[in-house]
Amino acid sequence: MYIVITGDIIGSRELLAKGINRENFIKAIEKVNKACEDCLLVKFSLMRGDEIQGVVKQVDFLPAVVRSLRYNFLPAGLRIGIGVGAISTDIVENSWEMDGEAFYRAREALSQCDKNTITIVKTGDLLIEEATNALFILLDALQSKWTRAQWEAIMTYEKYGTYKKAAQILKVMPQNVAKRCYAARWQAVVKGEEAIVRLLKFVLEGSTNE
């Protein structure tokens, strides 16, 4: 059982008209691949100008990878489909050359995204999907309100583990980092992400025991 993320860039044509082009998207993918190097089985790559895809190494990393995608693609937004299932081909460097159940489910999930639901998971278990997708809707609603400064504070704090170190990187006072994380309801986001991981582990561990 594998975890595939397939996404597309919201309003890519409008972004191109504003000067945000394919090179910007490629740089965003490079940043995600570097930040999530230890979390990815297959790195993200760009296809047809505005579609992205990669394979996550294990479920514990999924929420952080999704967040890294959203952060590094700012100001562009993403629709993200997540598929959990088997892969029927060899694992290769380019995920677009791979195939299988996880990819079908990720594409199906992406096709069901709309302006109100921008992250959808497909696992084959309807109850797990319902609960997981509800949590993602709540997380996306919170994150849609984050300022750039709050995004930077959260991502830097998560990486370095202390407000003091994050403050040194961001060149602000530690209390400013703490205030931004608090205003963004970071601890609530952490609880939601942990719940998503626990839910998806039921699917993954169930398939292992079959």
Question: Brief overview, please?
Answer:
This protein has 210 residues and is α+β, with helices and mostly antiparallel strands. The chain has a domain at 2-144: Reverse transcriptase/Diguanylate cyclase domain (Alpha-Beta Plaits, 2-Layer Sandwich), CATH 3.30.70.270.
Describe the structure.
With 210 residues, this protein is α+β, with helices and mostly antiparallel strands. It has a domain at 2-144: Alpha-Beta Plaits (2-Layer Sandwich). It has helices at 12-17, 22-35, 62-72, 101-111, 126-143, 148-160, 163-170, 174-183, 186-209, and strands at 2-9, 40-47, 51-56, 78-85, 119-122. A five-stranded mixed beta sheet has the order 2-3-1-4-5. α2 runs antiparallel to α3 (62-72). The model has no long low-confidence stretch (mean pLDDT 92).
Strand content of the residues, in percent? 15-25%
Uncertain spans:
none
CATH topology assignment of one domain: Alpha-Beta Plaits
Structural class: alpha+beta
Output the number of helix runs.
9
Kindly report the spatial arrangement of strands forming the biggest sheet.
2-3-1-4-5
Topology order in helix (H) and strand (E) letters: EHHEEHEHEHHHHH
Largest sheet: 5 strands, mixed
Mean pLDDT: 92
CATH class of one domain equals: Alpha Beta
User: What is the CA-CA span between the terminal residues?
Assistant: 12 Å
Helix content: 40-55%
Number of strands: 5
The H-level CATH homologous superfamily of one domain, spelled out, is Reverse transcriptase/Diguanylate cyclase domain
Which value, in Å, is the CA radius of gyration?
17 Å
- Please give the CATH architecture of one domain: 2-Layer Sandwich
What shape does the CA trace take?
globular
